[in-house]
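Project outcomes to date are best conveyed with an example. Our students and postdoctoral researchers have been running inverse folding experiments weekly, and each run begins with a structure described purely in tokens. The record below, which covers 131 residues, was selected by the lab manager from last quarter's runs and is presented without edits.
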């Protein structure tokens, strides 16, 4: 049993998020996803996500490729989350390349290429300009 763990905000859920989660799942036998809380986003970016955390978490939890979700309360708790969920592999998009190599003492760390030309920020800008 190889459990995979990944983290993200998944705001205004899109196909780039889906592809990342499906590829992460295919690297192991089960996928657990830490969804960042609204408070964490506010602390990091000074604004809340468009979708509140319970909706972001419900969308991610409903996906066929996802086995379990939890609140990512702090960026500093990754080691604790990896150990708590007994994950053997940490997967992140390559926008985080090298940033989590410090966890390679407790699990494998893999960065997958981001899907080009799609992002929550671009979607919000498009919606605003079309309005
Ligand atoms: N992603 C992707 N392709 C895109 C957009 C996003 O593969 N076009 C991936 C990101 O690389 C990330 C995941 O989808 O692995 C979630 O993206 P975000 O919601 O933007 O999450 P992020 O803000 O990077 O995570 O501890 C990390 C934090 O929770 C923040």
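After processing, the design step wrote out the following sequence:
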């Amino acid at each position: 049993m190889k459990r995979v763990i990944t983290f993200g905000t998944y705001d205004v859920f899109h196909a780039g998020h889906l592809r990342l989660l499906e590829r992460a799942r295919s690297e192991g036998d089960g996928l657990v996803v830490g969804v960042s809380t609204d408070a964490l986003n506010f602390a990091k970016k000074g604004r809340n996500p468009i979708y509140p955390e319970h909706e972001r978490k419900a969308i991610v939890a409903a996906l066929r490729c996802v086995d379990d979700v939890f609140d990512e309360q702090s960026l500093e708790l990754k080691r604790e989350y990896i150990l708590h969920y007994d994950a053997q592999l940490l997967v992140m998009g390559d926008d985080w390349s090298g940033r989590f190599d410090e966890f390679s003492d407790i699990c494998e760390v893999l960065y997958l290429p981001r899907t080009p030309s799609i992002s929550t920020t671009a979607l919000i800008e498009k919606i605003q300009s079309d309005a």
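The two ends are 48 Å apart (CA to CA). The domain at 3-130 is CATH 3.40.50.620 (Rossmann fold). The training component of this project remains on track.
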